[in-house]
Write a structure and sequence with these properties.
This protein is an alpha/beta fold. The chain is globular, with a radius of gyration of 20 Å.
């Protein structure tokens, strides 16, 4: 995808557009457990960095750290396990790895079909996934998967599939080694796309999967068109999420690790944040787990509602209902995040370990009813009636504390980093990062 610059005159005009409350805003509604009701919840997950590295003064994630004054910082936020898949399943169904044993190894050595059956059996017993809850509430959802060019991308979903990696394992593992084709690029990983692992989504005629698991590049058109769904889950590919170090072959984000993750955020968050501030939405940015040596944990997100051991990773929360420059010292984990998102969407039945978790509180500036939005003083209407603020063209909201961070990048939202330029594919095992 080519990155297209915005003309300087347009940038200057757009940057001066302030955010102002809508004159017709509805009276705030009562919150659930002290958590505001919103129209849009977005969860964006990065990979494998402990809090002491990510949020340090010497961190290479300068843009991410520059966002902290614009929102709320949750330093004592923890992963629940120590590979990828167990954490992603915890965020979307409240189940820890011990309750779905194969996810403790990213389902290493078993094919995608078998892994899905194991996850789905446990999830069905505990109430399903948040996708099921969202649809039952009459709301909408999408998983935006980076590194894909088609909807519902995954390795073979067949009982007898042997993949092409470690037989009979899933060969769509990213790290520069995912086989090309079927809409997958080399850095796309199935294990970072949690909604693939629920049989009532990936199975059947495939329509539910195709409708909801979309390429990340579609985020731009949704911001400009009908708008975001009620619930969005964003997973960058294994270069852009910071997992790989160095990255396989990408021209943008090539260094890998936190430096690459920060570039991804810098190029993509300004437009998303502008939309959420204008349309009563909240964004959670966190990591699946900490470094492998960090086995600290807290709360109820571990096996059977015990403390997890995924390490301290931290979180920043941004958007319309968030108190800027705020911090909470309370401890939270992935089960807490799930319960908080359920509350935000008006859902009061809690999945798995979220039933015993505490929601994230103490960082909210107000409680807003659904559809009571704050809008720019001169919004641009869209076919879906969604407000598109100046930030959606990639101009940081200069009226907010921090101004979007130095060097935030001036890009059209249509230039979101989806595919990138792939100069070469590295398949040698020695150049790949560990799984997780």
């Amino acid at each position: 995808m080519r990155i297209r610059a915005v003309p300087a005159a347009a940038l200057a005009a757009a940057a001066t557009i302030p955010f102002a409350p809508s004159a017709g805003a509805a009276t705030p509604a009562a919150s659930i457990e002290g958590v505001p009701r919103v129209d849009h919840v977005v969860v964006l997950v990065l990979e494998n960095e402990s809090s002491g590295t990510t949020w340090a003064a010497t961190s290479p994630a300068k843009y991410l750290n520059g966002l902290v004054p614009q929102g709320a910082f949750v330093p004592n936020y923890y992963g629940t396990g120590h590979v990828s898949l167990d954490n992603y399943i915890a965020m979307t169904s409240g189940l820890a790895g011990g309750q779905v044993a194969p996810t403790y190894t990213d389902c290493l050595g078993i094919n995608l079909y078998t892994c899905v059956q194991d996850v789905s059996t446990a999830a069905t017993i505990s109430g399903g996934s948040i996708a099921d809850q969202v649809e039952a509430a009459g709301l909408t959802w999408k998983q935006y998967a980076d590194g894909t060019t088609q909807p519902c991308v995954h390795d073979s979903y067949a009982p007898t599939s042997t993949g092409s990696g470690l037989p009979p394992g899933d060969s769509y593992q990213g790290n520069g080694g995912t086989p090309a084709g079927n809409g997958a690029l080399p850095d796309y990983a199935d294990r970072h796309v949690p909604f693939l692992y629920y049989s009532n989504i990936i199975g059947g005629d495939g329509k539910r999967c195709s409708d909801h698991l979309r390429p990340f590049t579609e985020l731009a058109s949704d911001l400009h068109g009908a708008g975001l769904p009620s619930y969005s889950f964003i997973t960058p590919d294994t270069c852009n999420d910071g997992h790989d170090s160095p990255c396989s072959s990408k021209g943008v984000g090539g260094p890998g690790g936190l430096a690459s993750a920060d570039l991804f955020l810098q190029h993509n968050l300004p437009g998303l944040l502008g939309y959420l501030r204008a349309n009563n939405g909240a964004l959670f940015v966190t990591f699946d787990e900490g470094s492998s040596s960090d086995t600290s944990g807290c709360c109820t997100g571990g096996p059977g509602g015990t403390s997890g051991f995924g390490g301290q990773v931290g979180m920043v929360v941004l958007g319309a209902p968030v108190t800027t420059h705020s911090t909470t010292a309370s401890k939270y984990d992935h089960a807490s995040l799930l319960r908080t998102t359920e509350d935000m969407l008006g859902i009061t039945t809690y999945l798995g370990n979220a039933a015993s978790a505490s929601p994230i509180t103490g960082i909210w500036s107000h409680t807003v009813s659904a559809s009571a939005t704050s809008s720019p003083s001169n919004p641009t209407p869209t076919p879906g009636g969604v407000i598109v603020p100046a930030d959606v063209v990639g101009v940081p909201n200069t009226s907010a504390p921090g101004g979007g961070g130095a060097g935030a990048g001036v890009l059209l939202a249509g230039a979101l980093l989806g595919g990138g330029v792939l100069a070469r594919r590295l398949r040698r095992r020695g150049r790949r990062e560990p799984r997780g």
